Amino acid sequence: MLNILLFGPPGSGKGTQSKLLIQHYGLKHLSTGDILRKEIAEQTPLGRIAQHYIDKGELVPDEVVISIIEEMFAEKNLKGFVFDGFPRTVAQAKALDSMLIGIKKTICIMIVLQVSEDELIKRLLNRAKIEGRKDDELSIIENRIKVYQNQTAPVLDYYKAQGKVFIVNGMQPEEAVFKEICYNIDNFSQCK
Ligand code: AMP
């Protein structure tokens, strides 16, 4: 079972590349951001908690996010996953690893999309015009990038220690990024 962790700051192209990857490898897309936005749209209790953090560009508390993932893992007939936007803290990474161990699986590879800060801001402001996401507003974007650097970037070292990290230049055209990601997966995945 192929489990891919797609990692990078907001606006680095994780959503776009995830869609291509799930098609190519027949995997399930697991985006905690998408799940949380759905909870908000449906006005569930979990959605109300999440909205408070998302609107400010802060991370939703670990226990809330981890409980969502636990629920998904309770499903029968699990396919491999593309994890998009999760884990975002080392605590989430540790929780994910122990859940995977519980079903005798592992993260096979972590792909990091590298994009300059100027380009991230440009892309997210552009997305705001198309999708109208409330958290794609300049001051919130800046906070999300800061949160990524402070709280999420340490997840990289956590998986580096496991020899699973491969960096891809996310500034290239979409198809070139996808090709480089697939090359890394096909050659360096720790799952056979
Ligand atoms: P995304 O769609 O991945 O950019 O996520 C949008 C927002 O949802 C983030 O800025 C966080 O507020 C929240 N969020 C998504 N995934 C997580 C996560 N794994 N941990 C904490 N908060 C998250």
Describe the structure.
There is one protein chain. The protein is of the alpha/beta class and 192 residues long. It has one domain (2-185): P-loop containing nucleotide triphosphate hydrolases (Rossmann fold, 3-Layer(aba) Sandwich). It is 57% helix and 12% strand. It has helices at 14-25, 32-41, 45-54, 62-73, 90-102, 117-131, 138-152, 154-160, 174-188, and strands at 4-7, 28-31, 81-84, 109-114, 165-169. It has a 5-stranded parallel sheet. Helix 2 crosses helix 3 (45-54) and helix 6 (117-131) packs across helix 7 (138-152). Bound molecules: adenosine monophosphate. Adenosine monophosphate (AMP) binds at residues 10, 32-33, 36, 53-54, 57-60, 65, 85-86, 88, 92, 135, 144.
CATH class: Alpha Beta
- Strand-pairing-aware structural class: alpha/beta
The hetero compounds bound to this protein are: adenosine monophosphate
Question: Biggest sheet, open or closed, and with what strands and sense?
Answer: 5 strands, parallel
Q: Looking at the structure, what is the overall shape?
A: globular
Element-by-element helix/strand order: EHEHHHEHEHHHEH
Instruction: State the CATH topology.
Output: Rossmann fold
Instruction: Tell me the Rg in angstroms.
Output: 16 Å
Query: Biggest sheet: strands side by side, in what order?
Result: 2-3-1-4-5
Estimate percent helicity. Answer: 55-70%
CATH architecture: 3-Layer(aba) Sandwich
The tally of structural domains comes to 1
Write down the overall mean pLDDT: 96
CA-to-CA gap between the ends?
Answer: 8 Å
User: Regions with pLDDT < 50 over 5+ consecutive residues?
Assistant: none
